[in-house]
Amino acid sequence: MSHSRGHVVVTGAGGFVCSAVAIALKEAGWQVTAIDRAFDDEARDRLAGVRLITVDLLATTDVLQGIAPTALIHGAALTVAPEKVGMTRAAHIATNIELLTRMMCAGRAAGVDRMLFLSSTGVFDSGDGVGKARLTEDVAPAGQGPYAAAKRAGEEITTGAAEDGFATLTVRLGNIFGPHEARRPSRPHLGLPHRMKAEARAGRITSGCAGAVREWAWLPDLAGGLVDLLAALPKMQPGVIHAGTPPVMSDAELAERIAPGFPHDFEMSGPLRPPMGTARPSPMTDIEWTPVNDGLAHLNLSGTAA
User: What residue stretches are annotated with the NAD-dependent epimerase/dehydratase domain (predicted)?
Assistant: First the structure.
């Protein structure tokens, strides 16, 4: 481990993506404080050596009191559809925006000098960028749902908050797969590869979209790229970047890799946006991505018997 690079707070760190980011930061020499409403036993074990704070961010205004962080990665978000949790769309939007603004203000008051906001390609509509080889930052997002609206607003807020002594950047994440993926209240569904494997065992693969080609970012690679990006952040201009240009695979090929020879009957059809990529130079463009087939094999998701 290298010498300490500073003290970073990661919100949403009990979850699939941000727990991996917190671990990568610790391994890179950062002092890490991980914040979430809950950490299951597996997450606590994996986050050994990381300071854990279990708190509802909407129920406190002094979560960073006495911590003195220098950096913030904000990944906490409510991703489940509002009707699934008995919320109005307006309340769902307000919740996600308030999570961001509360942490941003708390971070500034505590002395944070750089911040990454983790957004999503969920800001895009299914037809955005159709005809392009990659969905890059030059495509204007047109997603209309409450999650998309809150993320787009968060991107603007994050950019607008940048000033001398406070560097900000939004990173849009796309399709991610990797170790330790699990359901949780704020993220009730597993990723497409896991759903396909479960459906193959049940006798019929329906998840997926006919004609779809998606990017697949191996989570350990992504987490390492975000560590490098955080270190480089003060030298970058505010705005939005996509999380690199990960390898791609069609839904049909993914189903075949997971269950060779097994018929699939996708319930969805296109048009669907092209796979995500980036046109903006950053440490994310230097990631050497794990091939999709290798990641599937590591997760024991490939070769399910038909």
Answer: 8-233
